[in-house]
What does this fold into?
Amino acid sequence: MIRINSLRLEIGYTEADIKAGVIKKLRLNNAELKGLKKIDPVKISLDARKKNDIHYTCSIDLEFDDEAVLMKRIGADRRVNGRDISQTEKIRYNDPFDDVHSEQIKHLSEEERPVIVGFGPAGMICAYKLALAGLRPIVIERGQPVDQRIEDVNSFWKTGKLNPESNVQFGEGGAGTFSDGKLNTMIHDNSGRIGEVFDIFVRNGADPSIRYINKPHIGTDRLVGIVKSIRESIIEHGGEVRFGCKLTGIEITNGAVSAISVEQNGEKTRMTCSRLVLAIGHSARDTFRMLYENGISMEKKAFAVGVRVEHPQELVGRAQYGDQYLKLPPADYKLTCKTADGRGVYSFCMCPGGFVVNASSEEGMLAVNGMSNSDRSEATANSALVVTVREDDIGGASPLAGVDFQRELEKKCFDEGRGRIPVQRLDDFMNDRKANELAAKPNTKGACVSGNLRAVLPGFITDSLIEAMPSFGRTIRGYDNPDTLLIGLESRTSSPVRITREEGSLQAVGVKGLYPCGEGAGYAGGITSAAVDGLRIYESIIKDCICLN
It folds into this structure.
């Protein structure tokens, strides 16, 4: 395979333009062009560093009939700039199931079937792959199927009446279902797992462009159909998905998982279980406590807390792209700053053309998140703007101290807004004053009200945000306008807990058959990384199930 890097494409490019760029770059003659079998984009990114020269750059993989002869010609042709041209091998996912015959997989009794707790990205991908391998996984999800979940969430946004078991955090698809569906990730992957995850999404309805566009996203509206398709495939291949089914207890016998307790429709049941995947998500606080009380090893983990900040999408577009912004997709941004005392302040989960949503999951507490549909067509942009929380900020020896810290702030936020989302102008926030009424209504899902976020956030967070805003305003003109809206509380950036596991087997420390997985267990930070971790757990289980006799 031949790879071209840094191929330039103009705004509004087509597939024909990509092919024309390849022909020009390699100076292909007619015979070589006939031998071109495939053009496969690897990465397409928008280069907006110079506002008067905005364009796309891309990496392309090409398959030819006789690549060795072509590469020899390219190397000898001085008219070809060969610095960006090389032969390469495509990274392919090595599925352990592909290396065995199905009869080599142990036949699992009902008691041996893997049980996956949670049907977010980690649990979903793990269960999907286990089902395709014939291991008939059982998924238990405390929330509801996505269609019912949408009704529950819309009802909450309209009436304020929360269903603690079916909301923005709990239910089919996990917290990512009510987000932007972002698939960009910071993890480095040379195993092909990210590509495998994207292929699964595409097979179940995602646009194929997620494989190569920079900062891919699916959109909340399209995620719904994708998660339903994955669920249907699991069931078709012998798996089960049980909604409204909550993990309430775990039994450990001789250092191994032996059974679990679940509650469904008010009925409590004991299930024999020898392989348990904990893909519980970052908001399963009651489950964290139950596991801790049952002696499961866990530790504190770094996290961040702050607010959502909202701007007109036009402001972000003009700042990023200048007058070209109307010809381009809605602009996003990524901002970072280090305060004088070394604390990090950064944007997170930026939603171009989106909403701020009430993402609460506990009575008497309030948290928000960002959400965009696939077209990102709303007139406002929002992003979390958060501050790192250090271990000495929260105190306490318990691994659950971070959970208690989050809950305390969420209660203050609920009280400040009297159950509604508190909103504050940046100028009022910086001067510690509360307006009598909202100067401008933000684009929210869920009722909002004027509030003072200084009464919610601890001093180290407010001080850090105030220090960082002028820096961000120099990067994006208008970002620190006095009328910029701050919306609270952004507290669910990641799990504050890590359930410790052995690196080799990926099983919990001291407990055979227990697999902490995904963001809630402390091993991921977003849809893609959580799904990749689900894939790793699948690999560990499938290898354990290969018959060696």
